[in-house]
Amino acid sequence: MNNKIILDTSKNNCIFKLRDIISEQITYALNSKMQIAILCIGTDRSTGDSLGPLVGDKLKFLVRDKVVLYGNLENPVHAKNLSENLRIIKDTLEDPFIIAIDASLGSISNVGKIIVEKGPLIPGAALNKNLPPVGNVSIKGIVNISGSLEFLVLQNTRLYTVMNLADIISKGLYHSILKTIGGPKPHKEALENFAK
Q1: 171 vs 132, residue with greater confidence
Q2: Which of 71, 110, 190, 191 could disulfide-link to 142, CB 3.0 to 4.6 Å?
Q3: What are the E-state strand segments in the chain?
Q4: How is the chain split into domains, by residue range?
Q5: What predicted TM-score, i.e. pTM, was given to this entire model?
Q6: What is the pLDDT of residues 65-79, one digit of tens each?
Q7: How far apart are CA 157 and CA 132, in angstroms?
Q8: Domain 4-195, second-level architecture
Q9: Pairing relationship of beta strands 4-8 and 113-118 according to DSSP bridges
Q10: What DSSP state is assigned to residue 13?
Q11: DSSP state of 3
């Protein structure tokens, strides 16, 4: 994977490109005996910053033996609890490989696009918050333009843009997990019923 890849969500193959990029990273992590942590950062109190929790909500069912999910609409990971969640990840997962997802502001030509990078993202950078960098791989959805008054820009972001980004990111991650780890294991009762 290149250090930085920009994906255009208006292209039909965007989900599959994201799937393949993330699959490559997950395969590396699994071969290195690392556990996968998907960390969805943001808050549901701001339209523009709700990308992470929306992705987390769409992926709640994705948890597997080797995949743990942090952050959704019910329990968002945001500026006030990010450090605590990072501590929990490091305390409960042996050698975690973190895929960090967050909303970002960017140039007008990149609004609605996804940026995938090797290495961490800096949460809260647009709002000048001093938060730790997070992620072995980062996925940023560009929700609006950067400039001045970022707080107001995030508050006045179109929900359509955020929902579209959340759909594509969650589908790309879902398909990357299916490709590398597989589907959920059937419950014991289901296997017993199938055998009857």
Answers
A1: 171
A2: 110
A3: 4-8, 35-40, 67-70, 96-106, 113-118, 137-145
A4: 4-195
A5: 0.89
A6: 789 999 999 999 998
A7: 25
A8: 3-Layer(aba) Sandwich (3.40)
A9: antiparallel
A10: T
A11: S
